[in-house]
Write a structure and sequence with these properties.
Elements lengths: L7 H8 L3 E6 L2 E5 L1 H6 L4 H4 L11 H10 L1 H7 L1 E9 L5 E10 L9 E7 L10
Antiparallel strand pairs: 1-2, 1-5, 3-4, 4-5
Length: about 130
């Protein structure tokens, strides 16, 4: 019987303890299972979706874009703590990190990580 080697890179990506997502112009192109589960989705539900689904309003979505934009342009990386929306409607505080793959146009392609800060109680967004 032939032994098929596991795809260790895929195992590491999907099993990472932190949610990982790659976006192009704020549209989700790929994400790991941890990211999808954190937000109450399946990976396939998120692919091709705007990052807008993670925020409570269009205004919040637009404002959050500009917070780290200068830092991404200057240093290529940015981090903060932010509240993102779970599919069920409650909020989750996360440690957020971003690295642009295109500093000249920082939102063109970005790799981000999301790690929940407090896994106890969801945050009401009402």
């Amino acid at each position: 019987m032939e032994h098929v080697a596991p795809d260790f890179a895929q195992l590491a990506y999907d099993g990472a303890p932190t949610g990982i997502v790659l976006t192009e112009q704020r549209v989700i192109r790929t994400c790991n299972t941890t990211f999808a589960n954190l937000l109450g989705y399946r990976v396939d539900d998120l692919l091709g979706q705007s990052f807008r689904i993670l925020y409570g309003s269009d205004e919040e979505f637009e404002n959050i874009r500009d917070i780290g934009l200068n830092r991404l342009q200057q240093a290529g990386v940015y981090s903060d703590e932010r509240l993102v929306r779970h599919r069920a409607g409650h909020g989750i505080w996360c440690r957020f990190r971003a690295r642009t793959l295109a500093p000249h146009a920082p939102l063109e392609r970005v790799v981000m990580s999301f790690a929940p800060i407090n896994e106890a109680e969801p945050v009401s967004l009402s």
